[in-house]
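On clarity, I found the account of how folds are encoded harder to follow than it need be. What matters is that the chain and its backbone geometry are given together, residue for residue. The format is easy to grasp once an entry is in front of the reader. For illustration, here is how one protein appears when written out as sequence plus structure tokens.
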Amino acid sequence: MEQISTAATLGGVVELELGWRLAAATLLAVLGASLGSVGGVGGGGIFVPTLMLVCGFDAKTAPALSKCMIFAQCASTVAYNLGLRSSQTNSSLIDYDLALLFQPMLLLGISVGVTFNVLFPNWLITLLLIVVSLAMASRAFSKGLETWKKETNEKRLILEGSLTPGPANFTTLDSLWTTVEWKKLSLLFAVWCLITGLQVLKAYTANCSTAFWIYNILQAPVTLAVTVTQALRMREHSSYKLRESLLDESSESSSASLKAAGRALDVFRYVFFGVLAGSIAGLLGVGGGATLGPIMLEFGVPPQTASATATLAMLFSSSLSVVEFYFLGRIKVSYALYFGAICIVSAFLSQKLVQKLLNLLGRTSVITFTLVFVIVVSVISLGGVGIVDSIQELKRGKYMGFGSLCA
């Protein structure tokens, strides 16, 4: 694809230039950041096609800029959510326990996914994007319908007078010192620093060298230790129940061995879903929230909490991607700063708007349906671009098989 037609290039540095393309890209960036912020997904399904088709960036640069935009959007959303307290749980809107459970595996999965991205041909990545995203959207839509029916039934009972109305506001603004669990947030940051440090060190090693593999392998024990410890802690000390699939205490089992087996199975389940979410994000180039959000909904996490928690996890994972792309030299600073600022403002305003909308409608299922909408748009846009690129590669006679990690 040709270099950006709406920009002036001086010494290899792409500079912003006003024009209708930049205006259109700005509007699409606002849309992507707003919907992504509400649904708890990255919005990459809108950002990447916009950067490629409207701005003219190639398939290597567009995902890098998209990750910068996702990072800016997540930073703004998390900053807004930090002081919010959920009326459903009377605790922080962000579930730091779940974040600690899934974020380490999400980071590990991203490294695994990026590796497979190098190995898999474009046509296979596109096929997997379509199949996996549609499956996630289908499950999330089913959960949204369940929540909608439950909310409708509650409204009917309230009108009949057989149910007392709950709090009018779904979230309330509180002091950061009382809502933020600083120790857990610090641990999340520490895990991020360790994984990012290993990625930076790997960037200065020869591909497939001994040091390259050591830095890759060292990520596993770090992330596994945090996840397993957190999973066992949640089983013993959790103050709430989600669903039996997430926090099953195996109360029906009188055998200590069966209880231990159930505990091991639960830990394996957490590890599997965390790595799965990250691997899909790294392989397909979508935000981790597009897979982590539906997984949390499947576990029975309230939509607002699932969105806020997935966004926090995405903040760390997207920043890791930004660091990796920076060392690869794929980030155009002027565009990253401009679109990042657009995403920060859009995400913040959309959060304020959605809070008013939720209070007006009394339905948190709106968040789930927004998540589904963004995933479907991502399938159409990214899938369409991927199909066109694959057809062009086939016409040019390009090799369509698996690649080599060490090439």
Notes: The chain has a mean pLDDT of 78. Residues 122-160 form the longest helix (39 residues). Strands lie at 8-10, 13-15, 84-86, 91-92, 171-173.
